[in-house]
Amino acid sequence: MTFLAPTAPLSMPLAEPSKAQLKRDLHRAQLRKRVTALALIAPLAIFLLITFVVPIAALLMRSVENPEVADTLPHTVAALSTWDRHGAPPDAAYAALAADLEVAHAANTGGALARRMNVDLPGARSVVLKTMRATPLVDADGKPLSGAAIKPALIALDEQWGQPEFWQVIASNGARYSPYYLLASLDLKQDAFGNVHQADAEQSVYIQIFGRTFWISLVVTAAALAIAYPLAYWLSTMPERRANLFMILVLIPFWTSILVRIAAWIVLLQSEGLVNQALMALGLTKAPLELLFNRVGVYVSMTHILLPFMILPLYSVMKSIPPTYVRAAVSLGSHPFAAFWRVYVPQTYPGIGAGALLVFILALGYYITPALLGGPNEQMVSYYVAYFTNVTINWGMACALGALLFGATLVLYSVYRRFAKLEVSL
């Protein structure tokens, strides 16, 4: 028997990778995962950026923009920069005003300036437009006026140019950005010297409107919670098949237009509607009740429309609570109501908080329901946002009211998050 001598191995053993190589490979793998994740969420992120972030940023920017005076009268604003806003302005301001109005007349941009000045000083619109049409100012021989001759010509054209109030309005609105609209939304105003004061009584309406908006939203939230809590509890105790059937009935309003639902409530709540007929048939009332174009119709319709937004969070939380907890408390000697109140209800606080926050925030921005079912004293902030946007074309005021509503929403959400953290820690 012959033995073959051992031969060399067919291949050399692989060298172990170094730590640096492992780190590079791990970094590349993590980078690929991040790029893949970013590519997957990029369409949604871009969509949210275009439809949510950019409009809100534009709204906040527009609420502090005040460009009419600064853009139309740049030389006049510069000439008034050293004026103490007492007495008559310098002669250079009159010359700058004539030059700026001549340019505005040629470019047809004086209308926005006239409207803006008329907000602070009623009657300024006609003065500005009349002066603009008279430019360029010329003497009796048809030669353009210049220097000190412009001041008496402007005062002769309209004596208001000799009053410091007109010049104070121009000087106080010379900056492109100011808190004017935000202050006006809070019934405040800034005088010619920058001091903040309470607006006149006939102009102080927005605090009342905000209070009405928050009160209506609070009542609707409380009514929705009072109706939704027992209904959600009842659904959570049902067998799953039956609960799903009733949940479909709860979700039906989501599939119906808001206008259709409001029209249905108009039919139900009118003087000859089904509600009044039923009350009179039962002998509860002798005459039809006024249920339309007042606060009652607004409460009823908004509660009905927003009720599913309260039921769904409550139902999802209640469904996850084991019923054995309450039975255990009763078996240990607790009264059924006390067991329900002390054991069951605290576990539903997250659903109550989420539903109440959702309903309240949605109610803050409601427009169609109060506009169609309410009277003049039931209109909320959103009505005036639409009014300034579509009727008076006052974008600054509309954006300021919207910015305050947005700020209130953020405050409410932060408060909710704070309480939610406290509940989790407890």
From TrEMBL:
Main subcellular location: membrane
Full protein name: ABC transporter permease
Presence of the UniProt keyword Transmembrane helix in the record: yes
Membrane topology of the entry: Multi-pass membrane protein
One term under GO cellular component: plasma membrane
Classification via InterPro entries: MetI-like, MetI-like_sf
GO biological process: transmembrane transport
Assigned keywords, A-Z: Cell membrane, Membrane, Transmembrane, Transmembrane helix, Transport
PROSITE patterns: ABC_TM1 (PS50928)
Localization (cell): Cell membrane
TM helices/strands, residue ranges: 37-61, 214-233, 245-268, 298-318, 352-373, 393-416
Domain ABC transmembrane type-1: 210-416
Source species taxonomy: Bacteria, Pseudomonadati, Pseudomonadota, Betaproteobacteria, Burkholderiales
Family membership noted in the UniProt record: Belongs to the binding-protein-dependent transport system permease family. CysTW subfamily.
Organism: Rugamonas brunnea
